[in-house]
Hints:
This protein is α+β, with helices and mostly antiparallel strands.
Amino acid sequence: MSTATIPVDQMVEEQANEELARLAAEIAKHDRLYHVEDAPVISDAEYDALVRRNLSIEQAFPHLVRQDSPSQRVGAAPAEKFEKVRHRVPMLSLDNAFSDGDVIDFVARIRRFLRMEQDAAIAMTAEPKIDGLSLSLRYESGRLVSAATRGNGQVGENVTANARVVADIPKVLAGDPPEVIEVRGEVYMTQRDFLALNERQKAQGKQTYVNPRNTAAGSLRQLDPAITASRPLKFFAYGWGEVSEMPAATQMDMVAALEGYGFRTNPLMRCCSTAQELLEHYHAIEEQRATLGYDIDGVVYKVDDLALQRRLGFVSRSPRWAIAHKFAAEKAFTILRGIDIQVGRTGALTPVARLEPVTVGGVVVTNATLHNAEEIERLGIKIGDTVIVQRAGDVIPQILGYVEERRPANARDFFFPTVCPCELRTPIVRDSTATGGEGVVRRCSGEFACPFQRIEHLRHFVSRRAFDIEGLGEKQIEFFFRDQDLSVKSPGDIFTLAMRDAQNLKKLKDKDGWGQLSAANLFAAIEARRTIPLDRMIYSLGIRHVGERTAATLARAYGTWQDFHEAAIAIARGDLKAREEMDALEDVGDAVIDAVANYFAEEHNRRLVEDLASQVNVLEAEKPATSSPVAGKTIVFTGAFERMSRDEAKELAERLGAKVAGSVSSKTDLVVSGPGAGSKLKKAQELGIEVIDEDTWFQRIGR
Length: 703
């Protein structure tokens, strides 16, 4: 068993030692990716979980603490491309609190250390924790002489030339500053500036960025200051390092002094006297998060009295007098600015929430799905509400609810449209349920006549599992759909592109975003797809309820395009015998048959299909074997494979007459397992089903 899955309270010393070594290496890798390369690959929540596990093991086995332990260091080693700067006063990191209880414990620990009564008031500051890049600015005689990143806390990178071009960083301090003062704070980028930068990058065909924090960090750490100057970076000051003469005796007054020297400081900083006041301010900031315009990932609490800070001192790499109360990484509050309607390939109308930009789970979220009209009604949300947004992993962001006490007086109800938002304004119809009632899905009745559906059909047509035309992705489909010279309104138009281009005065190679080579490559890729297997041809049509597996079933049953096409037309005309023949196929029921009938009953669709068929060569379906070693068996593939992809393995099994299932059940005859297999393998073992590896599979089928 991997030590990563063993609970700490069940570990023996050898396991603890092994797990600490693994965590040290894992956390060091993520520190380097975050602090040095500005390219993290895990979320803050996942990183914090690793750090907490490391700490809990060290607390259980204190004699096993490693020299390279994450608890003994800050950040990561500075990058080799910059000169090194040793900090006169180390730039330490803060311990984290993840719950209200953690904050209450933190305040109680401070009172105990200072031998105060447990209910005694103690002044503490609370301020937003800016999600940016930490920077230390050294001023001598009021002039900026150096700037350094945090680095490993002891040594950072010299980014002085770049810091000088950040507008928020004064080159000369105002007022009467100390002879020497190191001002510390955070370089960041606002969400709107970040989104605008990404739009410029996209327009220029360049790579876009993931979030403002990484973009700000990467912008400051450029070898060319001109690149830094072109980026809209900002700076908040909140602390200090070496100071020749302290101008104030409290945290609040020191930050006020920094503001007097010409720095921007955070207006949400407050002084509180109890844990309850700290938490109230934390939750108030959390609810305002989306309106701030910049990313924060928590609230920082510090003892206000600097004399008490000195008495409290430090624990390992962190000050005892401060803590960072982190927000839940996957949830955030933001403002619902509007609701748009998107029309999908099958005509389904989906409401999409347009949100004030907010970073959730490391990604800037500007919209979230609302599924259907019933979901909007269930949530009870109105336009203008403060809503709670959740994003976990790669899941599309969703709205969990709204904050009733923050509903503005001018909040507006949303009324679901009764006609499609396309220019045709075709009526909206509702799906029927199995009992004859109205379903929740509303659809545009315009089919291919609706421009929204038409472009989605085209995107589906060229997708990887359909015609898979290289170089013809979503962006290119949009281009050709809108282009006046090379208009592509139906799949058949794709196969006449090269011919029409040759006839046009303005060639594709002369249009923005194209060139002679890219145009030639596209035409060659299209030509390579003129021959297509029958199942892909059927799937590419985008018939409702006809996915890959159903398309493969239909292809095997009818064998040729002509036979399938004739059967579909017959069903559309009400031929009961043709319907019965299709109904007899395994995994094909009324929903599929009705969808085929409705699709081919539409004259526009029939013309589209016939036009496409005249342009391509559809291969006959390969008849499934009836005498292979796996014919008639139900097989499940799980894990990764080396000799072919899992999809290719499934295709091969079906050609050999096997039925491929997606889950393991008592009806499963065989499980083929590769590296990384999980719950399916476990269930097969529990049910006593035969399990073989990839090599044994190929031996069994004689390949």
